[in-house]
């Protein structure tokens, strides 16, 4: 029965891939990437059974850690020393890795069927994990369990903290805004029919956040990029992508949002498209800016890693042949 539940969740999280234009080798897929906040290091993870830390100068492997099964999300702590990692179909669903000592701390109380939502709050004192059962689990910076909250989701696929408050926006089967300090939960249904959502990103001002979803091509529902006020009122819906929005990331100055789908796209705060570029036939999955906001790292379903500049010109790449 447990195996059946895992399979169902796994199929749900991959729903909609058939709408895309490419076939791929599942074993090469890189789900996530994250640029260190204070070093020229990039972490990547996916279906390789290995977490890799790469030099941003040449994309050579600096360190690697064995993580069984699928690595779904990574997040550097503000210190630049600790990496939080989530996975699914794995014995250790969530861990903290101290890259200085190589100590790995298992995070307890996260649902055994896996997790995809992962985010540190602004000062690095709290870590939020959203799992495939719809629960949000909170830890301190050392990995000590704080609390668990049912967000009434079928599964949580993306998380983002408000930049100044202990408020989390979580997406999955709907949108949840959870105030940790007040223990208050607000939920919204983003579309007329239920669409699996994948990504969320608060703007650095805290005035609004953006979400991205799968869409449903069989029902003629294209993927949407949606802008929301901090209280959950819909501001704008954008139909642009021909594939799901896997990940979203703002520059730290709040001027530009990068989205990963069948193309990399750059948007301004009004939701206007600034630039876009296709990087081949492979869908993009992981995406992140460096601390200077002048380079972007992306990963794709074929395990390729590319670094681009602000004009979306490739400055460095590593293909997974």
Report on this model:
This protein is mainly beta. The chain has a domain at 2-17 and 114-318: 7 Propeller (Methylamine Dehydrogenase, Chain H). The chain is 4% helix and 48% strand. A four-stranded antiparallel β-sheet has the order 1-2-3-4, with no helix packed on it. A four-stranded antiparallel β-sheet has the order 5-6-7-8, with no helix packed on it. A hairpin with a 5-residue loop joins strand 5 (70-76) and strand 6 (82-88). The longest helix has 13 residues, at 2-14.
Summary, kept brief:
With 321 residues, this protein is mainly β. The protein has one helix at residues 2-14, and strands at 30-35, 41-46, 50-55, 61-66, 70-76, 82-88, 94-98, 104-106, 115-120, 126-131, 135-140, 145-150, 156-161, 167-172, 175-179, 184-188, 197-202, 208-213, 225-229, 234-238, 247-250, 257-260, 264-267, 273-277, 284-289, 295-300, 305-309, 314-318. It has a domain at 2-17 and 114-318: Methylamine Dehydrogenase, Chain H (7 Propeller).
Q: How would the global form be characterised? A: globular
Helix content: under 10%
Task: State the order of secondary-structure elements, H for helix, E for strand.
Answer: HEEEEEEEEEEEEEEEEEEEEEEEEEEEE
Poorly predicted residue ranges = 1-21
- How would you sum up the major sheet? 4 strands, antiparallel
Global mean pLDDT: 92
Query: So, the CATH homologous superfamily of the domain at 2-17 and 114-318?
Result: YVTN repeat-like/Quinoprotein amine dehydrogenase
Q: How many helices in DSSP terms?
A: 1
**Reading side by side through the largest sheet, how are the strands ordered?**
1-2-3-4
Query: What structural class should be given to the helix and strand makeup?
Result: mainly beta
Termini separation (Å)? 37 Å
Using the coordinates shown, work out and report the CATH topology of the domain at 2-17 and 114-318. Methylamine Dehydrogenase, Chain H
CA-based gyration radius: 18 Å
CATH class group of the domain at 2-17 and 114-318: Mainly Beta
- From the 3D coordinates, which CATH architecture of the domain at 2-17 and 114-318 would you assign? 7 Propeller
Strands, total number: 28
- Proportion of residues in β-strands: over 45%
């Amino acid at each position: 029965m447990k195996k059946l539940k895992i399979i169902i969740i796994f199929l749900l999280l991959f729903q909609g891939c058939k709408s895309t234009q490419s076939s791929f080798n599942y074993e090469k897929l890189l789900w996530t990437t994250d640029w260190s906040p204070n070093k020229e290091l990039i972490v990547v993870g996916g279906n390789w059974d290995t977490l890799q830390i790469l030099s941003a100068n040449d994309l050579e492997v600096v360190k690697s850690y064995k993580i069984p099964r699928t690595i779904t999300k990574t997040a550097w702590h503000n210190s630049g020393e600790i990496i939080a990692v989530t996975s699914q179909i794995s014995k250790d669903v969530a861990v903290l890795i101290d890259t200085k000592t190589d100590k790995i701390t298992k995070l307890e109380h996260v649902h055994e069927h896996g997790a995809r939502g992962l985010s540190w709050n602004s000062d690095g004192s709290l870590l939020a994990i959203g799992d495939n059962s719809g629960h949000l689990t909170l830890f301190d910076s050392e990995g000590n369990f704080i609390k668990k909250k049912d967000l009434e989701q079928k599964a949580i696929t993306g998380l983002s903290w408000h930049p100044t408050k202990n408020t989390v926006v979580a997406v999955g089967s709907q949108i949840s805004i959870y105030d940790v300090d007040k223990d208050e939960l607000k939920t919204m249904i983003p579309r007329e029919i239920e669409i699996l959502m994948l990504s969320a990103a608060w703007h650095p001002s805290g005035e609004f956040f953006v979400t991205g979803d799968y869409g449903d091509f069989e029902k003629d529902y294209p993927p949407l990029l949606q802008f929301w006020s901090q209280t959950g009122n819909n501001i704008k819906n954008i139909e642009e992508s021909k594939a799901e929005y896997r990940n979203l990331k703002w520059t730290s100055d709040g001027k530009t949002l990068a989205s990963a789908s069948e193309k990399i796209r750059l948007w301004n705060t009004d939701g206007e498209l600034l630039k876009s570029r296709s990087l081949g036939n492979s869908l993009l999955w992981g995406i992140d800016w460096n601390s200077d906001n002048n380079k972007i790292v992306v990963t794709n379903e074929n395990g390729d890693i590319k670094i681009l500049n602000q004009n979306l010109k490739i400055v460095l790449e590593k293909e997974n042949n």
